From TrEMBL:
Pfam family, one: DUF7504
SUPFAM superfamilies per the UniProt record, alphabetical: P-loop containing nucleoside triphosphate hydrolases
Organism name: Halolamina litorea
Gene3D superfamilies with a match to the protein in the record: P-loop containing nucleotide triphosphate hydrolases
Name of the molecule in the record: RAD55 family ATPase
Amino acid sequence: MYDLHPHLDAEVEPGSNILFTGPPLSGKRALCLDLLANGTEQGEGSIIVTTKDSGDRMLEAFAQRTSYESRPVAVVDCVTKQQGDDVPERDRVKYASSPVDMTGIGIQLSEFLQAFHQDRNITHNRVMLHSLTTLLMYSDLQTVFRFLHVFTGRVQSVDGLGLYCIDSTAHDEQALNTLKQLFDGVVEVGEDGEPVVRLAEA
């Protein structure tokens, strides 16, 4: 099981994918990073797929929560190359050319999962994708749905835990409901108050 305490009052099965919805600045990203850092402290792998901030910025935010120097923490950065920066791959950071490059994103994720799960025998890995809203700005719903279908399946196949952020105010109800079909649970993060956890019945 993946224990989400103390940040969320929940435990979820390995292979689960959870969608975090809420308005901008409601703390979705911070909550997901907290959950990732928590896993890192328990010896789990953490992979951040970022379509919004550079990999370095995400690692800085992560470092504020827990030290990751010798730990299995990695980032798939879909931002830096799009901005025209020529950057070498590092052990911890791999680059997709842009948020549109869903094939590239999938390949880099698979490489990190293989490195952690198969090569280093880390059985529990948490994967965070921030943010689905950015993907939907660049591609249509059908394309993003297909991509997420593969992405969530990949997380499931290694008994991982997937955490995905989406801005609830940027999309219509139909789009949100379409995407929700792919997930095992939804966490609604409001501007105030506690996050509401809705997990699918096992």
